[in-house]
Write a structure and sequence with these properties.
Strand content: under 5%
Helix content: 55-70%
Distance between the termini: 51 Å
Amino acid sequence: MPSSNRWILGARPRTLPAAVVPVAVGTACAAGVDGATWWRAVPALVVALALQVATNYVNDYADGVRGTDDARVGPVRLVASGLASPGEVKRAALVAFAVAGMAGAVLAVVVTPWLFVVGAVSMVAGWAYTGGPRPYGYLGLGEVFVFVFFGVVATAGTTFVVLEQFTWLSLYASLPVGCLPCALLVVNNLRDIPTDTVAGKRTLAVRLGDRRTRGLYVALLVVPYLLVPPFGLFGRPVAALALISVLIARRPLQRVIEGVRGPGLVVVLGETGRVQLVFGLLLAVGLAVPV
């Protein structure tokens, strides 16, 4: 396999909507507000993407070293498959963190030094998800990390760097935005319940069991649609465009409810990523049209 291809696979492209969507939605929340500095959305996107890639590489490195990925059904893992050494993957993660740090430093200099703190906490959280002596991803807390950092922080934080102020609209928008990457993680961990149980990885899915994890996935995919109508109260009724994406959400919901397992859940993972991307971009377009 060409070197560039393996690193692209290791970055897990299907997870990248989790970084793109909150920045798009957070930027759209600033539409119609005086004082917006739009170029700042670009380094914010670089930060989000680099943190997502870095976290993915750390996950690959840490799980590979621990042997958690030795028996699994799902996308390729660099360390477990022998496509890269643990040291190479660890260095790739550090490079991605460095890219996030440089882009974040630009924002911290022009907006507020407090962003250095936010960035540092985000990096530590990305590493500690599966890295370190007591990774919280192994304790069933991964969904909390995803909701906070790829929901609230990324969405409201993008609006903040563009406007230099927090808004209730962006905080509310972070709720549906945060649910969908959690759904991605839940279906990923649902697939891995058998192997994670053997490896001692106590994800939330392992703790809940198969049936309740499927119920959680359904809730995380349905709730964002229930949260769309109230955007009209913020003067953004066009946000209802996001409801169109329900047309592609039906299929992964049906698969999970019907009990699909193993490779079938890999398909659901891809479908969920598409739902997240389409929902998020339509929501961003709608939010960018204040009434």
